[in-house]
């Protein structure tokens, strides 16, 4: 059965491959990108996969919270129901990591944007809907002062902390929704998949992106993930595994969510 699925960062890498697979399976896709040109190219590529594909494009720079909010407004005005959100867009190495409000771009794009998107759109998801959050094998304990922009981090730390933060918030949200759904699932899509992120960061070709796309498609649509709320799927090992211990610590998760809410109350209108 066709599902309506929002995928962020669908114009390159794992997101693009995931979009191709989903449109090939006949799903209705809301593809997000930050570049008009890349969105146009992506629509053409998806039409090559399925010329009858149902695809709508949404543009927003996820480092700009005003654009993140407008993205959510446009989607909720145009859609009464989404079956899944795949929070795929992410960033690792950048020339200048400092954003407006002095926040690190990795925390903004990899954590705050999916946090806002999910919270604003969750009411469109049914009880059996899914939110798939892109985690990583690279995870490091979150420094809340760094999250708030008071301490600078190198790229490896900023990325790894943003990915553990995303995983911790996923577990926190999943716990709060356990009786009502939708399912919140953190997924490491596998390491060193050959995207531009991996090529630029590590100077390696990387592995087949389809490995990552396949697990995101399964997490968003397959009955194998019916009972995956509040679980961590590690595609390096091809199985659900316990997450980083911090994600199993409700007090730490709560402190993280309080810190996120503090930042958002400062920067959102
Ligand atoms: N590749 C791996 O081995 C690996 C491993 C673990 C986790 N991941 C995660 O998988 C996800 C996809 O990464 P990838 O490897 O496919 O990298 P990628 O090819 O660089 O794709 C990242 C996507 O995010 C989008 N994006 C980045 N910054 C953005 C911003 N400010 N606003 C809007 N969109 C933005 C990019 O848009 P553009 O198309 O405009 O550049 C692109 O579509 C990320 O969350 C990453 O952390 C990847």
Describe this structure in words.
It contains 9 helices and 8 strands. The termini are far apart. The protein is α/β, with parallel strands linked by helices. Helix 1 packs parallel to helix 2 (36-49). Helix 4 (105-121) links the parallel strand 4 and strand 5. The protein has an 8-stranded mixed beta sheet with strand order 3-2-1-4-5-6-7-8, with helices on both faces. The model has no long low-confidence stretch (mean pLDDT 97). The protein has a single domain, classed as NAD(P)-binding Rossmann-like Domain (Rossmann fold, 3-Layer(aba) Sandwich). It has helices at 13-24, 36-49, 65-78, 105-121, 144-147, 155-176, 196-202, 209-221, 250-267; strands at residues 4-7, 28-33, 54-59, 84-87, 130-134, 183-188, 231-234, 239-241. Bound molecules: NADP nicotinamide-adenine-dinucleotide phosphate (NAP). Residues 9, 11-15, 33-35, 38, 61-63, 88-91, 109, 134, 136, 188-189, 191-193, 195-198 line the site of NADP nicotinamide-adenine-dinucleotide phosphate.
């Amino acid at each position: 059965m066709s599902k309506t699925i929002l995928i962020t960062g669908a114009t390159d890498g794992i997101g693009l491959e995931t979009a191709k697979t989903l449109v090939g399976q006949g799903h209705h896709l809301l593809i997000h990108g930050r570049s008009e040109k890349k969105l146009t190219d992506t629509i053409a590529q998806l039409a090559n996969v399925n010329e009858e594909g149902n695809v709508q494009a949404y543009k927003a720079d996820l480092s700009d919270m005003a654009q993140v909010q407008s993205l959510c407004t446009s989607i909720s005005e145009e859609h009464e129901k989404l079956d899944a959100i795949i929070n795929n867009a992410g960033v690792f190495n950048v020339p200048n990591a400092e954003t407006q409000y002095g926040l690190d771009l990795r925390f903004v794009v990899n954590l705050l944007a999916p946090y806002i998107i999910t919270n604003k759109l969750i009411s469109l998801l049914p009880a059996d809907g899914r939110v798939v959050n892109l985690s990583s094998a690279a995870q490091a304990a979150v420094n809340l002062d760094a999250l708030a922009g008071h301490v600078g981090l190198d790229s490896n730390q900023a990325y790894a902390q943003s990915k553990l933060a995303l995983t911790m918030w996923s577990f926190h949200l999943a716990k709060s929704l356990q009786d009502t759904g939708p399912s919140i699932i953190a997924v490491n899509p596998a390491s060193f998949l050959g995207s531009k992120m991996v090529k630029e960061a590590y100077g390696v070709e990387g592995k087949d992106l389809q490995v990552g796309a396949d697990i995101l498609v399964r997490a968003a649509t397959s009955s194998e993930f019916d009972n995956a709320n509040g679980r961590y799927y590690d595609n390096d090992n091809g199985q659900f595994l316990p997450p980083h211990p911090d994600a199993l610590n409700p007090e730490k998760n709560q402190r993280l969510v309080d810190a996120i809410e503090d930042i958002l109350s400062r920067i959102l209108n």
